[in-house]
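Following up on my earlier thread - several people asked me to post the actual chain instead of describing it. Fair enough. Here it is, all 256 residues.
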Amino acid sequence: MIHSQAIIDPDARLAKDVSVGPFSVIGAGVEIGEGTVIDSHVVINGPSRIGRENKIYSFAAIGGDPQDKKYAGEATELEIGDRNVIREYCTISRGTAQDVGITRIGNDNWIMATVHIAHDCQIGDHTIFANSTTLAGHVIIEDYVILGGFTLVHQFCKVGTHCFTGMNSVISKDVLPFLMVSGHMAKPHGLNTEGLKRRGFSSDALSQLRKAYKIIYRSGNTLVQAVTQLEPMAENCDEIAQLLMFIKGSTRGIVR
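Reply from S.P.:
Thanks for posting it. Predicted structure:
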């Protein structure tokens, strides 16, 4: 299943049923798990660990040196989980010594063509990155996030679980969980209601989240005032508690 015109470094470790197409290059320190398919003309550098049943399409460049002028050849890493789809011309960099030293991508993500994921990004599970989405370094994307085409995320920003961004969104602050945002610069446009319904959120949870959205964005409250009003609600609603935890942990400030 390894094409005769693929180049595999002797120090790479591939499971027996990994498929590698012609003219692909697998470098030293690369580990690839069972059932993963690498198309033609893919370059994967190490140290990188790639899990099971992934599909990586042609011309992707995976595990390259971080695009950071401080990088001085340190041994940093890339880790990709299971069942991810990485389409054509995607670029995914390893981490840097100035952060955790590793870029991580979880499981069951769908990463469309020409997406860039920079050094030290931490990506959860079940995300969708539409074409030409670009993540700067140190970005955190939580589970079930959908980033519309050409979305740009500034370094050190965090996008909360179940968010949805419109195409051409520019994100320079943290995005609360459950929101829809769009624009340059990105502004909130309500809850990601359809996405939450599809993922089985109860009508009561949606009702509580709507109340929370009004408190944060529609009532003229400062963020401190909004937090004060949300705290009693969080005692009986896990989703509100999640919002509060996110707000209190934000270092960039939130999109408002």
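The first strand starts at residue 7 and ends at 8. That should answer part of your original question.
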